[in-house]
Automatic annotation (TrEMBL):
Keywords carried by this UniProt record: Cell membrane, Hydrolase, Membrane, Protease, Transmembrane, Transmembrane helix
Entry EC no(s): 3.4.-.-
Gene Ontology BP annotations: proteolysis
Protein's job: Involved in the degradation of specific anti-sigma factors.
Source organism of the structure: Paenibacillus chartarius
Membrane topology listed for this record: Multi-pass membrane protein
Name this polypeptide is given: Protease PrsW
GO terms, molecular function: peptidase activity
Amino acid sequence: MTILPVLMAAIAPGIALLSYFYLKDRYETEPIHLVAKMFLLGMVLVLPAIVIQHGLQYEFGEGSWFTSFVASAGLEEGLKWFLLVQLIYRHASFDEPYDGIVYAAAVSLGFATLENIFYAFLGSSSISSLLFRAFLPVSGHALFGVMMGYYLGKAKFTKDKAGWYLAVSLLLPLLWHGVYDLVLLKAKSNWLWIMVPLMLYLWIRALGRVHRANDRSPFRSVAAGSDDKIKL
């Protein structure tokens, strides 16, 4: 296989999913340069994650539960969450609940895209296997990002429970990411029968969060007022 088709197949799922969630912002889309920056920073996170994962596994071994919930989910979701809290949570562009979903999806999909590129060029992969990965690891990272971003949005715009929602924004994606990894490690022969319903459930929940976050936008009433003026 030539390099370009493999590279495009590795990159396309992440870009497509990010475009989908970006365009789902109904009221005030985010600055594209900031979304792209978070996507690229998500890619950068892969490198420290690999180094730390190897260190953790060398020190504590490679047990299924430890690998799933600490070395993989805990580390990866923790790095994404830390980046978002430090760079986006108080940013002026984060001005409606849905913005958390956009930026968290950007970081998560940047991470997943570089993972996919490594898989494409360091493993024995085909175009079909890369497209299959779009259903599992890439969309999995996207869905964990939606969870994280949804609760970051609730934390920012629900002041009396900000601490609680900040904790949930880290712990909930960590939990589901850990479950996802554990299924792949434990269910050697029948993992697909578990994974397909799991992914469908996570997609349904994610789309519900997308809808609810948009409904809580402070710009919703402004948009409705503009529509009324146009009708008049």
